[in-house]
Amino acid sequence: MKVGLLFGSFNPIHIGHLLLANFMATSTDLDTVWFVVSPQNPFKQSNTLLHEFDRLHMVSLAIGDNPDLGVSNIEFHMPRPSYTIDTLTYLQEKYPSYEFVLIIGEDNLAGFPKWKNYESILNYHRVYVYPRSGSATTDLTTTLPNVSFVKAPVLDISATFIRDCIRQGKSIRYMLPDEVAAYIKVHKLYL
């Protein structure tokens, strides 16, 4: 089984995430894509994040019964902040017959050499890079081993923009699945 891993805060998950994950799962050599909900990204302040179980639940609502997508809370049980190399190592030990592929945005590629033990990630895992508007061009896709650029459709939408819309009382219709929007409304999240 070849599993693509899309790490993120998903604060909240939106249609851009879903479009990307579904494309990767159905239009590449990946068998499935798992959303790995990060309780605390080392590059983000934790006080801006919604509770991890709310974010996990919203991802589950968003993917519904799509057999090509999955969700993982693996990092909830690991030391914080979460480092990708530690999660990959744990997953590989837990699922030794699976091949795990890291999916990252082009905007993260330039800073990839700053990631904890990035050389180990590249030695043991492939990295699929998708385009991001406004990203600085880098030659790392040709200079780093095991890095492949995937021409995937990407929507220029962000969770920050959605949270701002919610706080301002603006419509978030079509930005995220209806089930997620309903969950946010019922639980009065991001206000």
Task: Describe the protein.
With 191 residues, the chain is an alpha/beta fold. The chain is 36% helix and 17% strand. The protein has helices spanning 15-27, 52-63, 84-94, 106-109, 118-124, 140-143, 159-167, 178-186, and strands at 2-8, 32-37, 69-72, 99-105, 126-130, 147-149. A six-stranded parallel sheet has the order 3-2-1-4-5-6, with helices on both faces. α6 links the parallel β5 and β6. α2 (52-63) packs antiparallel against α8. The protein is globular. The N and C termini lie far apart (41 Å).
Mean pLDDT: 91
Class per helix and strand makeup:
alpha/beta
- Spatial sequence of strands, sheet with the most strands: 3-2-1-4-5-6
What amount of the residues lies in strands?
Answer: 15-25%
List the uncertain runs.
Answer: none
Radius of gyration: 16 Å
> How far is it from the N-terminal to the C-terminal residue, by CA?
41 Å
- The total beta strand count reads 6
Give the overall shape, derived from the CA principal axes.
Answer: globular
